[in-house]
Amino acid sequence: MKATGIVRRIDDLGRVVIPKEIRRTMRIREGDPLEIFTAADGEVIFKKYSPMGDFAEFTAQYAEVLNKALNMPVLITDRDHVFAVSGMPKKEYIDRRISQELEDIMENRAGFAAGTESAAVSPVEGDSRGACLAYPIIGNGDVSGCVCAMLNEKKDLPTDAEIRLVQVAAQFLAKQTED
Fold first, then answer.
1. How far apart are CA 174 and CA 85, in angstroms?
2. What DSSP state is assigned to residue 6?
3. What is the full per-residue pLDDT of the chain (179 aa) written as tens digits?
4. Model-level pTM?
5. Beta strand extents in the chain (DSSP E only)
6. Distances from the Cα of 162 to the Cαs of 42, 108, 133, 158, in angstroms?
7. Which residues contact 178 (CB under 8 A, 6 or more apart)?
């Protein structure tokens, strides 16, 4: 565990403020759910909660099916990291932080399809490979992740059928996160 040197006191209602620097670094926004864990040695651990994490195995299978249907590599993310990959080396992408571009697409709650006027977006920080399709997973009114279809070797623009497949995938995964 990384020490920050920041100390906070608990107020009379049992609240503690997470410093702005840590919230910014960890991309914790107002209203984000946090899981609280305790350890035998007295540690209290806050971890960002991802509803997509509950469906990791299922989502990985869905990514494989979508990859075969589209004949394009597929990434599925939660709000912060890639957690399902198909058609690309998993070790290179699993748990990688998403890019600001992809975070903006999710925040705007609108899908992205590369076209003649819009270039592909890089879904992963520090990676030059582009996604031609990115659609947020929105369940119960909350954005919980994104489905991305990456550019294939041909670098063709996505067809209407490919766009619809990614949209359906995002909607289906959103349904899985709903109560």
1. 18
2. -
3. 666 778 888 889 988 888 888 888 777 888 777 878 888 888 888 877 766 666 778 888 999 999 999 999 999 998 888 989 999 988 889 889 999 999 999 999 999 998 866 778 889 998 888 888 999 999 888 888 999 999 876 667 889 999 999 999 999 999 987 76
4. 0.75
5. 34-38, 44-48, 74-77, 82-86, 112-113, 131-139, 142-150
6. 51, 21, 9, 6
7. 139, 140
